[in-house]
Amino acid sequence: LTYHWWSEERSLPAQVRSQAMISKHLGLRARRREEEAAQRAAEGDQTAALKLYFQATRDFMKAQHAVLELNPEKRFLYSGLERCYEKVRELSPHRIERIEVEWEGNFFGGWLHLSPGPTPAPLLFHVPGCDTTCEGSPNPVAVPEHRRGWHVFSFDGPGLGQSNMRGIALTEDNFEQAASVALDALRRRPDVDPDRIVVYGAGAGTFWATRLALRDGRITALATKSGYSSLYYLMNEDAPSYKRLYAFLTKAVTEDELDQVLARMTVDGQLGQLRCPALMVTGEYDLRDPVEDVFRLFDQLASPAELWVFADQFHRPKFAGQRSVHSAMLDWLEARLTGTPLPASGNRVRYIEPAAEGPAGPHVSFKRRWFEEGQPT
């Protein structure tokens, strides 16, 4: 469930031979890394200890994710995640503060990574995907947002992390409502600039981030990656285990009940109401996002927007060089924060060839389909 059969990712322990083995062997690797981290800390190598504790945190995170019921194994793995992340907080070069909010009788929280720069500072509201938790990002060893002078808040709304452990069911609209309450609390902080808040989401986080931006007019800009189309494609074209995951998150008892909830989880027909600038990023052959459907949704946007289509790529697009897609998306958000307008020529699609090392240059053109004549960027 944590891994994608179509990707080049091969980071599972060698002992894993079935889906059922993921939680055990990732959990064992997490414990080994936790023990090594403790040894490095005892030796005085705080940098190595921090890296290992964060690796252990992510292993525990992925291990518990593969367990789709609140049983002793999931609680054991989640407690390991919490224990290692506390060590991450102790060793982090910047302050990581817990933010908890109450909404409709439930408590939701996340981690605020405070920029060491001057305040009040802009804030990036990070919405994780459905296979991660708020502890999974950013990596405290090097936070790219901090180099830009931004705070980062990573949120476990309904359907994620601690919300699952508390038995809070995901509905079609409660994530963005809880996130908006968290945004209220963040904007009241004297170290946060309330007028410079951007939102980032990927995968399932794209849906929740977009719904938050649709609901909350206080957002300066929105950047998302994958996860635009109907959840039909995630459930039926990608790994079939996603239906089990969403049944666990929503507490749906029957497949018909689940299908009804999933059908209401959409931004189709709503994107015209978005008022902030938006960046959409997709792979040309992402199984979850048929590209023609992404074009149709992109065309609904009335706000200034760009769509980046990565040719011949899937759910996790990459540039040819060292530059990360995440970094390029942060550049785009930074331009919006500094008031740089998007071109007045209308919303455009950047077609990014496999040889491209960034979102502009000789291997990028303004077009939608591989066989069209494009305009240079």
Task: Break the fold down into its secondary structure elements and pairings.
Layout: H1 22-42, H2 46-65, H3 72-91, E1 96-103, E2 106-113, E3 121-127, H4 144-147, E4 151-156, H5 161-165, H6 174-187, E5 192-202, H7 204-215, E6 221-225, H8 231-236, H9 241-250, H10 255-264, E7 278-283, H11 291-298, E8 305-310, H12 325-337, E9 348-352, E10 364-366, E11 375-376
Parallel strand pairs: 3-4, 3-5, 5-6, 6-7, 7-8, 8-9
Antiparallel strand pairs: 1-2, 2-4, 9-10, 10-11
How would you characterize this protein structure?
With 377 residues, the protein is an alpha/beta fold. It is built from twelve helices and eleven strands. The protein has helices at 22-42, 46-65, 72-91, 144-147, 161-165, 174-187, 204-215, 231-236, 241-250, 255-264, 291-298, 325-337, and strands at residues 96-103, 106-113, 121-127, 151-156, 192-202, 221-225, 278-283, 305-310, 348-352, 364-366, 375-376. It is globular and about 60 Å long. The relative contact order is 0.09.
What's the story with the biggest beta sheet?
11 strands, mixed
**In what range is the share of β-strand residues?**
15-25%
What sort of overall outline do the alpha carbons produce when their principal axes are compared? globular
Query: How are the strands of the largest sheet arranged?
Result: 1-2-4-3-5-6-7-8-9-10-11
Rg is 20 Å
Q: List unreliable stretches of 5+ residues.
A: none
Number of strands: 11
Please, what is the oligomeric state? single chain
**Termini, distance in Å?**
38 Å
Mean pLDDT over the residues:
94
Helix amount = 25-40%
The SS-based structural class is alpha/beta
Order of helices and strands: HHHEEEHEHHEHEHHHEHEHEEE
Helix run count? 12
